[in-house]
Amino acid sequence: MSLTLSQEAEEYVEAIYKLQKRSGAARTSELARELNVVPGSITNTITHLEKHGLVEHTPYKGVKLTSKGEKIALNVIRRHRLAERLLTDILEAEWSNVHESACKLEHALTEDVLALLERRLGYPKFCPHGNPIPTENGEIDEVESFPLTEAPPDRTLLVVKIVDEKRDKLAVLARKGIRPNTSVHIVKRKEKIIILCVAGKEQTLSRAEASHIWVKNTGEKKHHD
After folding, report:
1. Labelling 106: which of 66, 126, 135, 138 has CA 20 to 30 A away?
2. Which residues, in sequence order, are bridge partners of residue 94?
3. Domain coverage including residue 186
């Protein structure tokens, strides 16, 4: 890529891409949470990215990537998700523990190394958390899915992906047996929690936790006794 970005700038475009996919734009408060920085420190980096034509910032509405910014974001995400597969598939790390290590590794992977890694891994389509891996050409094949918070209560659901990949969040889900390709169904909804059945056991999730789990219907209706 002709433009060389700092690690910090790469992490920003990656975070903006993910937030934009979820809610249409990345607000400063959401970016601060995603990147674990104070909101006041974000302005300078956003101004830098805007100057290079990578983002458009609309006051009170948030930040969106330009097509140039999206191309760079997809390249960073490709490196990150292949790094996660390296950690889980070859180094046998726990799937819930690899996000932070991959954040460091992704910046060191050159295109040559990526091509070798992808071949060694057998050209995987998804990261260990179920999120799609962009191709070398920046194409990304999203599986149709929706947040668990929007799911019907009487259907068997398949977990497609988990969009918040931070270690502490994934550790909670891992303990409850929730991971990509797991079948679940909603037992009960309450104002602040959702009770799920996972492998025959009831598990309680907060609404925030449930919103990060994206599922699809399997077409099977769940019959309650």
Report:
1. 66
2. none
3. 146-221
- CATH number, residue 164: 2.30.30.90
Distance CA 159, CA 179 (A): 7
The average pLDDT across 2-30 equals 87
pTM for this one? 0.88
Q: Please report where in the chains the tokens 């060694």 appear, as a residue.
A: 120
| Residue 173: its H or E element | helix 167-175
Mean pLDDT for all residues in the chain:
91
Average pLDDT over residues 3-29: 89
Indicate the burial class of 165 (C-beta count within 10 angstroms; 0-12, 13-18, 19 or more): buried
Instruction: Give per-residue pLDDT as tens, 21-71.
Output: 888 899 988 999 888 888 888 888 999 999 999 999 988 889 999 999 999
Query: Is residue 92 in a domain?
Result: no
For residue 61, the domain's CATH number is 1.10.10.10
**Is position 23 within any domain?**
yes
Q: What confidence score (pLDDT) does residue 225 get?
A: 47
Inside any domain, residue 122: no
How many structural domains does the chain have? 2
pLDDT in tens, 159-178: 999 999 989 999 999 999 99
190 inside domain = yes
Domain boundary among 65, 92, 107: 65
User: Sheet harboring 155-162: ordered strands across?
Assistant: 146-147, 213-221, 155-162, 183-189, 193-198, 201-206
